[in-house]
Amino acid sequence: MIVMFVRVKDPSTGHEFDVPETDWRLKQSRFTRVKQDRYPPVDRPRRAKHHIPRKKAAVAVESPKEPTDG
Predict the structure, then answer these.
(1) What is the pTM of this model?
(2) pLDDT one-digit tens code per residue, 19-28
């Protein structure tokens, strides 16, 4: 029997990765399936996509540029 892997997303972390179709966490809705048409079931797991939240970047204040003699 060939185990097929499906792409899922963990709602608590935002990470996307592959799990076996028979994974108990899918049945308990701990993971949600990701774009089934884009990520069809495969026989080997794909690389994970880790979600890295963006930090609110401080807005840099630019100083006026001095004119150059040219």
Answers:
(1) 0.69
(2) 999 999 998 9
